[in-house]
Structures are given as structure tokens and as C-alpha cells.
Amino acid sequence: MNELIGVIGGGPAGIMAAGTAGSCGKSVILIEKNERLGKKLFITGKGRCNITNSSSMDLFFDNIITNKNFLYSSLFSFTNRDIIKLLGDNGLRTKVERGNRVFPENDKSSDVIKAFIRFLEKSNVKLRLNSDVIDIYLNEDKFVVKTNNDVFLFDKLILTTGGKSYPATGSTGDGYKFAKNFGHTIVELKPSLVPLEIDAPWLKDLQGLSLKNVRLKAYTGKKLIRDEFGDMIFTHYGISGPIVLSISNHLNKRYKNISLTIDFKPALDNEKLDNRILRDFELYNNKQLKNALNDLLPQKLIPWIIKYSNIYPEKKVNQITKEERNNLVGVIKNFRMHFKDFRPIEEAIITSGGICVKEVNPSTMESKIIPNLYFAGEILDVDALTGGYNLQIAYSTGYIAGMNV
Hints:
The protein has about 400 residues and is α+β, with helices and mostly antiparallel strands. It contains 13 helices and 21 strands. Keywords: FAD, Flavoprotein. Its cofactor is FAD.
């Protein structure tokens, strides 16, 4: 009799696992608690879905933060080119944008999900939507899966229930509980790719200010942890945006005494910035300092740059001393911020932590503790930077689990 395979979780890892197993002739049931598949996939990339990243695999691995060695087998078994081809075979045309990010050609994440549904249909996967898994246990050699609607008996089971970020999409951490009940260790869950809270008096004034092409640095004590170049935004609680999310992934590794700095003019060294300021001062020779920096800095930022430079804001620029100018350069190049905390895990793009990968076979994604139990995707203790890398990890681990059931 043909084995019955159960896959719990209809995100990218679950879809790949179910579709792959089904395409190999297995009888597969994919169980999803939501009313439709890929709910989190639908909102990725601001609704455009950053499908994967087309970088070479060497560069790809440079962007994996946690347990990259565990992922070698899966990522080389099912690569970024493979997912682009699979989606293409199911009617989706793609394009490559800045940073080698791959998107659907028409910028609609819904079309990505439609292509995945075609893949599942071709693979004869049976869907059970609106099915919330309440309990899972072993009865002799069968996995008993109880949902709010049915009870299933599976010969093999793949858990692809995601992390704890974006709980409104169904990622509520259920899979960790089930895995723990089977004896698996859960590495502490932490927010990753998440905005940061800052303790500062200027938050209200700078809220909503977007910055382009700045450099953000993070330190523990005096030691540099990471620096990122790109875009960010000030919020009511602190800072967010692409470089903030990327740097957060490095900060959640138990660092203490974290501090942050912004270089508002990274393209200019101190001397060139000083020369630029001198040119502006010549142009606005009789103006007060607070009215002479509009060509250099955003309006909202100027009062705080002047304040931290210890210069009287109404002082005429023709009276500014070289020492004061040096202070101004120093603050623009090294605007200090006091790190307070990460935003809650519910606001993170992904979850750091999860099932300990030492307890999972990297070549098959099978549990080393419970035979015929497999894992894939964000439920595992693996994570990467933004840019399509985390979704590719989901596809690749899902593929290898689906191949090996």
C-alpha cells in the first residue's frame, strides 16, 4: 500500500515539500490552518514577493547568518535557479532587480502563489485548508494528527509550520511545541530582521524621516560588530528600514552594551565634509547656523546635529570656529544612538532560533530522534539576511525533505 505523507504548514517550505513528494508519486496531504496557502508569502517584498536571490552560491552563503554549514546539502540540491525554473514551468515570469533580488515580472505575489498551486495540482497533492492542528503523537509506527476538523494517520510527517513572526499569517509557533513533545531541543527564539528601539530625546522630532545612502554601525563596547550601507527611516520607537533590519540579525547573538552610530555622509571623509561645510558657509555667510545647513542635511535633523555639536544655533556662520566646525563634522559622521531593545518578535520578518539542527540530518531533513519525522523552513534554527535568502532556504529544505520521504 502506498505510504501516506503529511505536511503541516502551507508556506513556501510546506508547498515545496508536499509538491516534491507528490511529484515522486507519493500520496500527500498538505494541512494549512489558514483559508489559503502562502499567507506570509503573499506579503513578502511589500506585496511583490522577493522570490529568491540570483547571486552565486558563494555570495549566497555569505548572507546566511545562522548554521550555514547545515544548509549546504539542501541549497546545492535545489538552487535559486531551480526555483526560478519550477515557477517558470508553472506559468510565472520573473525579473532580477538591484542586489540580485528576483521578483515576479508583474510585481504580484499572488501570481507566485498561483504558480505554486499549479505545482501542487500537477503533483496530485490534496489540500486541507482551515485545518488547525491541535495535537500530534505517535501510535505505534503512525503519526496521528488531530485537527479541528479531522484525524489523520500518516506514515511520514513533515513539519513546516514556520516561526513566530507575523502571527496574523498563521506563524504562531505551534511547530515548536510539537517538536519539543517529540524530544527536540528548541534553541531560544529571538526576533531577526526586526526594527530597533532607541532611547533618545529626538525620536518625536525625527519620526518619519527617511534617509538614503547612509552608513549604520553597531558596536559592543568599542568593538565594531557590523556596519551596513543603504536606506533607513526614523520611527516613533527608533529606527527601521533595510540596513536596520540587516544589522539586527547580527545584534541578536547575545551582544551586550550595544551602541549604534549613523554616518550621514559616508561618501565624504572628514576633510572633504569640512570643505563642503566651508563652501556652504561662504554661500550663507551672514546667516545663522540653524539656517545654513539646509543644502547639507534634512531640515528635521539640523537642530539635533547642532545641539550635539555644542554650537549655539543662532550663531552666525562667519563666527563659527574651526573647533566648532570639527565638532559639526564629527556629529554628522558619527551620530550616536543608545540601543534600547529589539521590537517584538511578532514584528520581525523572520524568527531566529528554532529546532536545533544538530538533531536533524542535513542531507534529508529527517529527525535524528524520531524516524520518519522531517522538518523544513523557518521552524529550523537557520536564518539569513534580507534579499530572498530566507525564502530560498525554505524552498531548498522543503525540497530535500520532500525528496527523502
